[in-house]
Request: fold
Amino acid sequence: MSRALTREGYRGPFSVDAFAYRALDGTRQLHALCEINARHTFGHVAHRLHDRLGTTRLGFSSTPPPGATVLIAPADDGVTAWVA
Reply:
């Protein structure tokens, strides 16, 4: 991916989004590429926090689990981000 972006003249941070889902037959599937983000993302933050703190989970939910490090505190909009 980085070679293709370089060929196109892009120089900078990027991440690739993917997701897992459950197919109609019940099997778990991976959609390996759904978009390219040409910017810093929470994935970059998560990797750096893993390097520093040993965290292994990045979550976005209204209630962080016990012991999580909160990155974005819950507010009226219900959005929060955390690592654990």
Observations:
- The beta strands are 15-22, 28-37, 58-59, 69-72, 81-83.
- Residues 42-53 form the longest helix (12 residues).
- Helices lie at 2-7, 42-53.
- The CA atoms of residues 58 and 83 lie 5 Å apart.
